[in-house]
């Protein structure tokens, strides 16, 4: 009895972030287009051969992208946003990157989180007159590449309902579903081309099925797939990130050849599908965790799969729960990790081997994989009993917290008056989100220090020079609340995790965040505490250089949790509270050191929101408590900021307000201040700084563009509660564009202050 193995997707960036290097060298003019495309081709072919060597029987084709798979899906159906003036049929590589990164005439496509992951996708733009036409050549060429290598290819593409749902309606209001007939026609043509090219199977992803879909969207699936299937290859409809059992009857009735279910996020949903499961459909069991890095319990998984195999026979396929895009590449390369901890981990390459073991165990029996099962059992037992995981003092501290420990002493209006009494800020105060350019010199100093080639004293001197440079440039620009620039920080989560207990770090555990941007999530394996101050000395030094207030900069507990690989032996809420108390120690020490403006960034709080509405209230309660615990006990005159970006917040504004931050800064420029409509309608009670320019694009905004955005902001936010700032941190930008953009931002703020004074 055979149980085919396949993947929904594979990490694009490469074992050593080869894709990042290719892209950035190309963007900097150091690599021509032909060399970029050849390097990308070699990288994806290397990945296919790796999968083939690990026994994967159907490898995804089309999951590899030069920037974003959602952007690629738009272009496959000919839907380039008309504001750029590009034709999808003749789109050049340079134009592709302009869609993603913007150009002198147009800002980049809006970017937001891919469901509840830390991957960011480019948001499709739909207009009432959007026309579609299949452009299948990119997929067809990759099928030919894979076939030439002897790799069995399974084209993978985002489904039409999910693509349509993930986009935004632009121009005059209209119902996005009105575009579905034209979109389905383009998909039908696209799938027919794949079939004609010899593709036996095609994977079509519909992740929106894990959401609480409106009835009209649910009802659209049956007629859409009735039109797609006749001319298509065999379709494997893939769902992931949650429970889709509410749609079991619909999914079993669709004219597709198979379904993929995420049995890691929602193992219980299988019971809704097995009864009366159609005899002509395969069922792909997402049984290896595509979202976390812990080694699978192979014995338990094999026991779970056995009854499925007995029921389904050869129609049971095996796969990870979702694309391995969200997993680091190879744990074997982590030679510096604690050997015991390393045995607990499985990155993408190891997950392929786990899949192979489960297949062999099902087909040949447990005895055939006894060594692999014994190794899995030993690692699991060792992890459960390891003394490095539990710290009784952390649990005791949490248990001893008094009632309402997470509440500030006074309400915001009282605090605001006390803060302004010493800050004496002008109307529309200007600031930045925290980081300034991480120049080659900064990165070289950090690398030399880590290698032992630069002494601690010399490293500190180098970082202090960078801090002074950042302070002086901000003073020249005329910013009101300064930051130290974060020259000493490698990453906004990794920097803190390296100084907290219960965290471990990899050398090459990179995961793509967007485009060429990769992050290296820490691993939270044990109880979290803060042995010593982490940022106080740097902040104190920065404040000594200027009479203007300098913000202390911290990453919040929810974001540290969300952007880490988190232990699975404790509830996430408990881990988050541990992090919050560790950060609270830092906040108290910053305040004692004279830092009275402290930013606790929480860009990931919306990202952590459960996909199902029924689960959200509980999450928002503990996430909000954790944020407030991190600033517990500070004086009313200490101003607490937070920052959020690249997410939709309209549906959770009561919870955002309940964080009770004195100032919130948010990303709004790519959405043309669209998000502020929600804040205005909700009557957000505290101060707010909507981002006035997109820092993820290399284009420098004009003063008139910034003025337009701020004029919109002033219509919904009172001037006395409005701050002026960029969308996000500036670490990825260069100093010339930073200076130009911030100068324009300050100029507009000064002009508006004069205007407000004249009308007062």
UniProtKB/TrEMBL annotation:
Pfam (any one): Meth_synt_2
Keyword entries, A-Z: Amino-acid biosynthesis, Metal-binding, Methionine biosynthesis, Methyltransferase, Repeat, Transferase, Zinc
Entry EC number(s): 2.1.1.14
InterPro entries in alphabetical order: Cbl-indep_Met_Synth_N, Cobalamin-indep_Met_synthase, Met_Synth_C/arc, UROD/MetE-like_sf
Cofactor note: Binds 1 zinc ion per subunit.
Active site feature: 696 (proton donor)
Gene3D superfamilies: 3.20.20.210
Amino-acid positions noted as binding 5-methyltetrahydropteroyltri-L-glutamate in the UniProt annotation, renumbered to this chain: 17-20, 113, 517-518, 563, 607
Domain Cobalamin-independent methionine synthase MetE C-terminal/archaeal, chain residue ranges per copy: 428-749
GO molecular function, one term: methyltransferase activity
Top-rank lineage group of the source organism: Bacteria
Domain Cobalamin-independent methionine synthase MetE N-terminal: 5-311
Pathway terms, separated by semicolons: Amino-acid biosynthesis; L-methionine biosynthesis via de novo pathway; L-methionine from L-homocysteine (MetE route): step 1/1
Cofactor(s) of this protein: Zn(2+)
Family under the similarity heading: Belongs to the vitamin-B12 independent methionine synthase family.
Record-given protein name: 5-methyltetrahydropteroyltriglutamate--homocysteine methyltransferase
Native species: Pseudogulbenkiania ferrooxidans EGD-HP2
């Amino acid at each position: 009895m055979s149980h085919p193995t396949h993947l929904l997707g594979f990490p694009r960036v490469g074992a050593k972030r080869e894709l990042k290097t290719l892209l950035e060298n190309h963007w900097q003019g150091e690599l021509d287009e032909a060399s970029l495309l050849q390097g990308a081709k070699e990288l994806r072919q290397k990945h296919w051969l790796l999968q083939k060597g690990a026994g994967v029987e159907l490898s995804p084709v089309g999951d590899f992208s030069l920037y974003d798979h959602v952007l690629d899906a738009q272009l496959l159906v000919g839907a380039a946003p008309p504001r750029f003036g590009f034709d999808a049929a003749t789109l050049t590589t340079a134009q592709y990157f302009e869609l993603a990164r913007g150009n002198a005439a147009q800002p980049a496509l809006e970017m937001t989180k891919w469901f509840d992951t830390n991957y960011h996708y480019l948001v499709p733009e739909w207009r009432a007159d959007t026309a579609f036409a299949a452009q299948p050549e990119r997929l067809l060429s990759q099928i030919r590449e894979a076939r030439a290598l002897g790799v069995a290819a399974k084209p993978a593409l985002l489904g039409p309902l999910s693509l349509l749902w993930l986009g935004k309606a632009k121009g005059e209001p209209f119902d996005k579903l009105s575009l579905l007939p034209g979109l389905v026609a383009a998909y039908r043509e696209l799938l027919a081309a794949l079939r004609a090219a010899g593709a036996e199977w095609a994977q079509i992803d519909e992740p929106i099925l894990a959401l609480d879909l409106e009835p009209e969207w649910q009802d659209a699936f049956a007629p859409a797939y009735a039109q797609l299937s006749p001319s298509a290859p065999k379709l494997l409809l893939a769902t992931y990130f949650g429970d889709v059992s509410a749609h079991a009857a619909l999914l079993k009735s669709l004219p597709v050849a198979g379904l993929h279910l995420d049995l890691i996020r929602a193992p219980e949903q299988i019971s809704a599908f097995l009864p009366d499961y159609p005899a002509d459909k395969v069922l792909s069991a997402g049984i290896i965790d595509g979202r976390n890095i812990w080694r699978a319990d192979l014995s338990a998984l094999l026991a779970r799969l056995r009854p499925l195999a007995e029921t389904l026979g050869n129609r049971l396929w095996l796969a990870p729960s979702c694309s391995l895009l969200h997993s680091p590449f190879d744990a074997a390369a982590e030679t510096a990790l604690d050997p015991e901890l390393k045995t607990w981990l499985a990155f993408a390459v190891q997950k392929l081997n786990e899949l192979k073991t489960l297949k062999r165990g099902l087909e040949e029996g447990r005895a055939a994989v006894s060594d692999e099962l014994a190794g899995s059992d030993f690692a699991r037992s060792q992890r459960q009993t390891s003394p490095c995981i539990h710290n009784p003092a952390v649990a005791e501290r949490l248990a001893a917290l008094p009632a309402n420990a997470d509440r500030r002493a006074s309400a915001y209006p009282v605090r605001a008056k006390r803060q302004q009494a010493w800050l004496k800020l002008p109307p529309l105060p200007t600031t930045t989100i925290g980081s300034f350019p991480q120049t080659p010199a900064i990165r070289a100093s950090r690398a030399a220090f880590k290698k032992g080639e630069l002494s601690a004293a010399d490293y500190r001197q180098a970082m202090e020079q960078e801090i002074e440079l950042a302070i002086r440039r901000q003073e020249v620009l005329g910013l009101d609340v300064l930051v130290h620039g974060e020259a000493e920080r490698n990453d906004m989560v990794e920097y803190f995790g390296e100084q907290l207990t219960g965290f471990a770090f990899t050398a090459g555990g990179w995961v793509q965040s967007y485009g060429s941007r990769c992050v290296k999530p820490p691993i939270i394996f044990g109880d979290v505490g803060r042995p010593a101050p982490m940022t106080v000395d740097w902040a104190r030094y920065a404040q000594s250089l200027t009479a203007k207030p300098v913000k202390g900069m911290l990453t919040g507990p929810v974001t540290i949790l969300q952007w880490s690989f988190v232990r699975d032996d404790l509830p996430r809420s408990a881990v988050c509270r541990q992090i919050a108390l560790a950060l609270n120690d830092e906040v108290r020490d910053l305040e004692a050191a004279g830092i009275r403006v402290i930013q606790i960034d929480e860009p990931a709080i919306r990202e952590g929101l459960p996909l199902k509405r029924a689960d959200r209230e509980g999450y928002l309660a503990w996430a909000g408590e954790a944020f407030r615990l991190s600033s517990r006990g500070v004086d009313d005159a200490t101003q607490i900021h937070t920052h959020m970006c690249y997410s939709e917040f309209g549906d959770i504004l009561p919870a955002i307000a309940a964080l009770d931050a004195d100032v919130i800064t948010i990303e709004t420029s790519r959405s043309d201040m669209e998000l502020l409509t929600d804040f205005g309608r909700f009557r957000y009670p505290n101060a707010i700084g909507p981002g006035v320019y997109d820092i993820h694009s290399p284009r420098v905004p004009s003063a008139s563009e910034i003025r337009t955005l701020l004029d919109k902001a002033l219509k919904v936010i009172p001037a006395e509660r409005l701050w002026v700032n960029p969308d996000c941190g500036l670490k990825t930008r260069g100093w010339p564009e930073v200076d130009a953009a911030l100068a324009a931002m300050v100029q507009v703020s000064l002009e508006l202050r004069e205007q407000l004074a004249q009308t007062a």
